[in-house]
């Protein structure tokens, strides 16, 4: 097998995940969003709650595909580790720059340190180094340690409610006013991409690494078994430790990671084996660029006061026909459609932005 073999199924699945991110992040009106397109208020798991875990799972898969062959060929560890660290730092810095842009143009009261790209960068660094320096058995042991250890930490911490859980308490202590939610009067804070809950996100990415090794070695039955086993174990564990995206609980890791492995197996069969078109590929090969570009687009529209007039003038006529929820969804679909045209043209011209 080629050291750098590329799977169209992985690009397509990554791309569909990014398109889904843009869809749920850019409704016409946050007051009128269909339930499945919103995150769970706290415990539970909606379709929207699957999007970020799927992306991190695919990050792990991509690490396996990018480095697995080189590791098996005996490539030296240090240059690969430097590549991982440098790319992770670029992703984190990009996330912080985007937050600075939002803080400046949208007049946010405080600058937020954590974020989606920051979490992706941390997970990429951790799992990339695990792929380079740990063999398969050690990776499994690390995954089990993270899952059990983090579950134990949450349980030992007492409450699993939004106010009072140990992850939010520690994030409030470490991040303070630089978290997404912060009450200076009480010292209570919370961030859905906080530092403590990143332990769960690391587990998701590590699970993707294991799945990616199965894919590159054509061990598809193992991949399906991994998906079914993790999803079932996640649902069982949820009876004691609820599914929770903001805490990124261990049961949530297994449930979403299991579904991710099954989605990967299905995409591989349909696209790589059967020859279905890789819908979403253009988003997938420019994933970070599409996410960052869409973020800047939204911030600029909001920051310069153009978003509401655009929504009212271009989509106001839809409300009598489909209602306010349908109108809001139409805007989100149009937003994704515009970016689909952009990334398709970039792909046609073979322009790929790498972070």
The tally of beta strands, per DSSP, is: 2
- Describe the global form: globular
Strand content: under 5%
> So how many helices?
13
Radius of gyration: 20 Å
| SSE order, one letter for each helix or strand | HHHHHHEEHHHHHHH
Q: How many domains make up the 3D coordinates?
A: 2
- Tell me the span between the first and last alpha carbons: 27 Å
Low-confidence stretches: none
- Overall average residue pLDDT: 94
Spatial strand order of the main sheet: 1-2
Amount of helix:
55-70%
Q: How would you characterize the largest beta sheet? A: 2 strands, antiparallel
| Class per helix and strand makeup | mainly alpha
Pfam families: HGSNAT_cat
Keywords: Membrane, Transmembrane, Transmembrane helix
Protein name: Heparan-alpha-glucosaminide N-acetyltransferase domain-containing protein
Architecture overview:
With 355 residues, this protein is mostly helical. The protein has two domains: 1-38 and 279-355, no CATH class; 43-273, no CATH class. It is 67% helix and 2% strand. It has helices spanning 8-25, 51-72, 77-105, 116-133, 136-156, 166-175, 198-216, 220-237, 250-273, 281-284, 287-303, 307-315, 319-348, and strands spanning 181-183, 188-190. Strands 1-2 form a two-stranded antiparallel ribbon. Helix 3 runs parallel beside helix 11 (287-303). The radius of gyration is 20 Å and the shape is globular. The mean pLDDT is 94.
Break the fold down into its secondary structure elements and pairings:
Blueprint: H1 8-25, H2 51-72, H3 77-105, H4 116-133, H5 136-156, H6 166-175, E1 181-183, E2 188-190, H7 198-216, H8 220-237, H9 250-273, H10 281-284, H11 287-303, H12 307-315, H13 319-348
Antiparallel strand pairs: 1-2
């Amino acid at each position: 097998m080629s050291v750098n073999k590329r799977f169209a199924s992985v690009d397509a699945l990554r791309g569909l995940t990014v398109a889904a991110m843009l869809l749920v992040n850019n409704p016409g009106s946050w007051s009128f969003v269909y339930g499945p397109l919103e995150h769970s208020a706290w415990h539970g798991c909606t379709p929207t709650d699957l999007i970020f875990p799927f992306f991190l799972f695919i990050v792990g898969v991509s690490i396996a595909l990018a480095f697995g062959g080189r590791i098996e060929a005996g490539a030296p560890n240090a240059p690969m580790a430097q590549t991982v660290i440098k790319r992770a730092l670029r992703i984190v810095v990009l996330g912080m720059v985007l937050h600075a842009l939002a803080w400046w143009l949208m007049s946010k009261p405080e600058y937020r340190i954590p974020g989606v790209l920051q979490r992706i960068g941390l997970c990429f660094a951790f799992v990339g180094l695990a792929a380079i320096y740990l063999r398969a058995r050690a990776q499994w042991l690390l995954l089990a340690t993270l899952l059990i250890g983090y579950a134990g930490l949450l349980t030992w911490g007492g409450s699993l409610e939004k106010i009072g859980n140990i992850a939010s308490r520690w994030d409030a202590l470490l991040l303070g006013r630089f978290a997404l939610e912060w009450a200076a009067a009480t010292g209570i804070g919370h961030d859905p991409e906080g530092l403590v809950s990143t332990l769960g996100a690391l587990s998701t990415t590590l699970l993707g690494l294991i799945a990616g090794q199965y894919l590159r070695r054509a061990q598809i039955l193992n991949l399906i078994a991994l998906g079914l086993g993790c999803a079932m174990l996640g649902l069982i564990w949820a009876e004691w430790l609820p599914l929770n995206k903001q805490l990124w609980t261990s049961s949530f890791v297994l449930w979403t990671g299991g579904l991710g492995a099954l989605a990967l197996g299905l995409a591989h069969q349909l696209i790589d084996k059967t020859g279905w078109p890789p819908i979403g590929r253009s988003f997938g090969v420019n994933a970070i660029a599409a996410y960052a570009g869409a973020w800047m687009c939204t911030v600029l529209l909001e920051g310069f006061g153009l978003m509401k007039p655009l929504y009212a003038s271009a989509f106001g006529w839809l409300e009598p026909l489909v209602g306010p929820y349908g109108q809001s969804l139409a805007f989100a679909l149009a937003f994704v459609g515009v970016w689909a045209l952009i990334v398709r043209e970039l792909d046609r011209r073979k322009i790929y932005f790498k972070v």
